[in-house]
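Predict both folds.
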Amino acid sequence: MVVADAKGVALSWGLIGGAAKQVDVYSTQGGCVARFPNGTQIAQPGDKITAFWIDATGRKSPASAPVTVAKP
């Protein structure tokens, strides 16, 4: 799953497998991260984002409707 900003630019991604019911698109795992890998970034509360899937063959799904990131 890929999370993109409102303009469609990818921010971060997460892998899924099996019968998972949740995808961590970006998580600091409770730690302090100063640098994000490969230019990815975490969406902040108030940001408008969309989400889409990329399957194992590289096909992209249609993007979701825009949603606003809520505070945890």
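Second protein follows, with its predicted structure tokens after the sequence.
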Amino acid sequence: MFIMRDDYKISLIAGLLLMGLTLATGVTVYRVMQQQLESTLGRGLEVALEGKTYLFESQIDEGLVNTRAVVTRPFLIQALQQHNAQPGNASTLHDIRRNMSSLQMAGFKAASIYNVSDKKLAQMGNFSQNSAAILPLKSHNKMSLIWHEKFISLRVSMDVLDQNGRRIGSVTTEKELKQFTRSFSEIRAVGKTGEFMLCESLETDKLKIVCLISGIDGVKFKQLSRVIEGVPSPIDYALRRETGIIATKDYRQIPVIAAYAPLGTTSVGMVLKLDEKELYSVITEQMETIALYLTMLVIAGMLLVYWLILPLVRRLLRSEQVIQEANVKLLHAKESAEQLSTKLTTHIEAIGKLALISITDRSGHILQANTKFCEVSGYSEQELIGQNHRIINSGTHSKAFFVDLWATIARGDICIRKSATAASRGNSTG
């Protein structure tokens, strides 16, 4: 039972270690994939935003160039000069209105001409009436972006100057930025939670912004804060004319990956972002499959560990048990030897009190003598050591007796002889 408990315990520990290593490897791979995905998608968002920036800049520049071409027309300058000189001249006013049709051919949705007193003289087309959804471009005088349900339009107001640089009137144009609108509205390519924002700070409150937000559910016009719970939002960086990528929370308090950049030389900031949840859905959607594979790998590993390690563990445990049993037997033998040694010592001590005992080398020289031997011989042990047994020869025994005695001693046998008690020093037997 001891072996069975321990071998299963070791196999379980090995299996748990294998499971831990597998899970740690899986988590490490997930983290690497997560970072790689963030980097790849972030770079993708940044590139997409750069493309939109170039498109928007070109559209705005085109609108400015077209409006500038209108205000610098010689016919318009001459007509306004004549009208300012003769305000009641119907012929001049008629010519201005008749030539407004040429502005429609230039791609303008609407246009109007004003005299030096800002009185409207003529108009072509209809201007957008959604005054709430307007992003003023403060860096450009009298220019703004307007959302009117389907399109983003660029409205530009520009003065008309005479040859001496004096203001003689003004022109206001509005042009639908169709490519701009298409790029702004088509957010499906980014993702289901993707949003594209165009924002401008308010004049009355620098911490507040107005934004056109394009999402999967359409375009919205909102007023937001540049700083959310003390943390700058991505659009705040864009309005500070910075460019980059950031992982943060947006105005909805949802974690996002956002690319931000200013819109050219305008005061507008742009943000293209995607929710982190959707970003990681590429990985999380496969988590069940990955978890299943990891579980199968762990089970297979545990079975392999059990099959390979369990026999070895059992042999090791059996060897340990044998060693323990041998140690127990050795301990018992040691205790028995100690008891035997004690008895033997007792017997020797008892014999030593009755018998004459001397120990010699092979040459017959005394090395040691017990107390009884010294008492009977009359010599001290120091006097006996190094001497031959002839020192105690009493002359009682024959020469053959001593020959046999020394032969016995030379063989290493025990020599026991009965002797008469010496009456005086030098008269003893050995």
